[in-house]
Amino acid sequence: MSAEPGTPTGPPTIPPPGPPPPAPGPSGPRLPEPAREALRKSAQQARKQLRPVRKHLIVLGVAIVIALVFAGLRLLGVGVSGIPVLSRESCTVTAASESYDLTSKQAENASAIAAQAVRRGLPARAASVVLAVELADHSLGRDPAEARALYERLSSVADYRRQSVPGVAQQISDGSRDSYRDSEAQARALASALTGNTPEAFSCVVKGGSSASSGELSPAGLTSRAETVREDVRNAFGRIPDGGYQPGGVTNGHMKGSAHYEGRAVDYFFRPINQRNNIKGWALAQYFVANADRLDVQTVIYDDRIWTRFRSAAGWRDYDVPARGGDQAILEHRDHVHVDVAG
């Protein structure tokens, strides 16, 4: 059988041994070696210049991701292991669209100054004037006891309720009207919150736990920390009806697991339930938050709202009433402020 035309009839061609021939490249003259070296150096220099830019872009991207994660956890009010570690330890007062930050010590001093106004039966405006002076002249760093003299001087200012806060502040202290005008907005916000006129407007982020106490009960049936709270309230506000404890400790009348059974809790009563008593209750509730770090406060409940050290970054939250029988208003803590301390 003959081969078809064009079909090779001999043995297949085998390429000769040795390296394959170089692939065809572009034709044309080759750059001189000095020029090629210059191009290599230019490329290396360009890469070096881009490295910091890439590094900054990576760092910026990581920072943005971390910030978004932290912001999300802040909204939840929790951090690692449920501890609110995302916000710095500080306090915040909010009025309308403005918020002002304070250190824990400033918050303690501001709350003590406002408590003096409450104890004296003075309006929030009196606290605004004194706080304006303390903010402008001392950055709220002075011993609150020294502010008592300002209240005494205020009583001699005729019709101070109708005068401007900076004007009255200048009459009872030595600072300038301009400095008191600058501190007025924050002073008003603090006074309104800490005298109870603006509910849940003051909150603190408190980190860390407290050392364990002995757990021994006083003759009244309270731990040493709870007794410290009672004494502190008497010094700041005078005597407020309280309860939730008894000699030897209480064994019933509260929900399961209540701090009252351990002598760690005190209830402060503001009865009957009305607007006037509600304001007084909020003054005390926000005082406890302002002094949570100093007094080892763990929980504050009032007016169907709750603040806890464990979730302090979340501020005041809705209080979930336990499923148990009883007067709904009492269960919602509308007639009393509950405070408990670390064990």
TrEMBL record:
Keyword presence, Transmembrane helix: yes
Domain of life: Bacteria
Organism: Nocardioides luteus
Region span, Disordered: 1-34
Record's compositionally biased regions (Pro residues): 8-32
Name of the protein this chain belongs to: ARB-07466-like C-terminal domain-containing protein
Domain ARB-07466-like C-terminal: from-to ranges: 220-320
Coiled coil: none
Keywords: Membrane, Transmembrane, Transmembrane helix
Listed transmembrane segments: 57-77
